[in-house]
């Protein structure tokens, strides 16, 4: 077995080799403490320094404005489906109360463009009965599941059915910037009414390109694709959206953003090792030229793969050209049998974790920040050499 695998996994995913080597070097003795980072108290000085540096580097890379707070949350990105709903409905309830509009309906808008935004909308719907005092409605302003159950397009904004914030109480507009399962990515930030907080799940394209944080109420993502190991979810939240725990729906303490903010993400024990690894990844990212630098590399990598797919007679992309993901390149071969052959051949050529998500099948090459450009060309230019004859 080779000691270096060409890892196209969707997540947990490849971590930059340099980051792993640094972590390995420091494994038993981090920052001269004589202890592993896993053995340090989260309230110790050395861990405090790691947390601060991680926040500083993230602020620098994302150019996070000073009226935002970085939170390190737990429970994966899935937990944020509930947290976003609870916290932003709470903010809206507070606002309505102050405006003497108690009891009015609250609407939450979702742009459903793939599996993850669909799940987030379902979770919001499921939690509606827990809100006391105001009826809440989920509006799927975009809902593009095709008759075969697949996603693959983002309709033009003129076709979105966003709720009119002048006439209704819209708590937020939610979308998933990059749909990991279906390989669908927004190419720009949706334009919405500026008075409504915009929320985005960037779990699978976090820090893959520059982002204008000031356009958002909340930007969040799990770490295990572009930022490190599973176990920590980063939430960047605008401070005016943080409300007291006793306002709005009763919610578990661990889902409450203000509790996390007031305690510097240490209301309980945070996932210290995962945060440390995120910190090392951010340092690496700065060395790659920050978000501008990594975006250029990501564009080159994805263009290369899509060109192979579009030029070929055996590969097809199920995703419209104007919304193809730079991170998760999803494609099919002409028959399921050929797909099996392709995946078998790939494994033999040291290319791993290429199988499409179990709900959609096909092939998915996840080419996150950490995947070096050389891994798409050497030593096995499999994508480039595969001809139909290879499978006959
Ligand atoms: N959102 C997106 C875009 C994802 O890709 C995933 C996981 O793959 C999730 C949410 C759920 O993340 P988790 O498994 O950390 O809850």
What labels would you give this structure?
single chain; 392 residues; alpha/beta; Aspartate Aminotransferase, domain 1; Aspartate Aminotransferase, domain 2; 2 domains; seven-stranded mixed sheet; three-stranded antiparallel sheet; 9 helices; 14 strands; globular; disordered C terminus; binds pyridoxal-5'-phosphate; Phosphoserine aminotransferase
Concise overview:
With 392 residues, this protein is of the alpha/beta class. It has helices spanning 17-25, 45-62, 76-98, 115-127, 257-262, 272-287, 290-311, 336-348, 382-385; strands spanning 6-7, 68-73, 106-112, 136-143, 169-176, 178-179, 184-185, 198-201, 218-222, 233-238, 315-316, 328-333, 351-352, 363-366. The strands form 4 sheets. It has a 7-stranded mixed beta sheet. A 3-stranded antiparallel beta sheet has the order 11-12-14.
How many helices?
A: 9
What overall form do the CA principal axes indicate? globular
Radius of gyration: 22 Å
Assign the CATH superfamily of the largest domain. Type I PLP-dependent aspartate aminotransferase-like (Major domain)
Sheet of most strands: 7 strands, mixed
Residue-averaged pLDDT: 94
Oligomer, anyone?
single chain
Q: Helix and strand succession?
A: EHHEHEHEEEEEEEHHHEEHEEH
């Amino acid at each position: 077995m080779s000691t270096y695998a060409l890892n196209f996994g969707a997540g947990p995913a490849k971590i930059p080799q340099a980051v792993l080597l640094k972590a390995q070097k420091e494994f038993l003795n981090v920052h001269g403490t004589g202890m592993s980072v896993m053995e340090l108290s989260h309230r110790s000085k050395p861990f405090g320094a790691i947390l601060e540096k991680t926040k500083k580097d993230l602020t620098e890379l994302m150019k996070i404005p000073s009226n935002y707070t970085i939170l390190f949350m737990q429970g994966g990105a899935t937990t944020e489906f509930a947290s976003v709903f609870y916290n932003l409905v709470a903010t809206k309830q507070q606002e309505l109360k102050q405006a003497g509009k108690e009891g009015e309906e609250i609407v939450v808008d979702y742009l459903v463009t793939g599996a993850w935004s669909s799940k987030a909308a379902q979770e919001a719907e499921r939690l509606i009965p827990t809100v006391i005092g105001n009826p809440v409605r989920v509006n799927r302003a975009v809902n593009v599941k095709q008759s075969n159950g697949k996603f693959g397009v983002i309709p033009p904004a003129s076709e979105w059915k966003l709720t009119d914030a002048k006439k209704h109480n819209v708590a937020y507009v939610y979308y998933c910037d990059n749909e990991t399962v279906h390989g669908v990515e927004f190419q720009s930030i949706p334009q919405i009414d500026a008075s409504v907080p915009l929320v985005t799940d960037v779990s699978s394209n976090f820090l893959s390109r520059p982002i204008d944080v000031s356009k958002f109420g909340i930007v969040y993502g799990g770490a295990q694709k572009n930022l490190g190991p599973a176990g920590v979810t980063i939430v960047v939240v605008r401070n005016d959206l943080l409300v007291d725990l006793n306002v709005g729906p009763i919610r578990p303490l661990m889902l409450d953003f203000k509790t996390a903010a007031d305690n510097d993400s240490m209301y309980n024990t945070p996932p210290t090792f995962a945060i440390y690894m995120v910190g090392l990844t951010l340092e690496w990212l700065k060395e790659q030229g920050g978000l501008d630098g990594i975006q250029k590399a990501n564009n080159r990598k994805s263009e290369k793969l899509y060109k192979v797919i579009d030029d070929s007679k055996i590969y097809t992309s199920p995703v419209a050209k104007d919304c193809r993901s730079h991170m998760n390149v999803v494609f099919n071969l002409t028959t399921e049998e050929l797909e099996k052959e392709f995946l078998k051949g790939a494994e033999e050529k040291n290319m791993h974790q290429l199988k499409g998500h179990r709900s959609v099948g096909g092939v998915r090459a996840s080419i996150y920040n950490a995947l070096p450009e050389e891994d798409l060309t050497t030593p096995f230019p499999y994508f480039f050499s595969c001809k139909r004859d290879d499978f006959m």
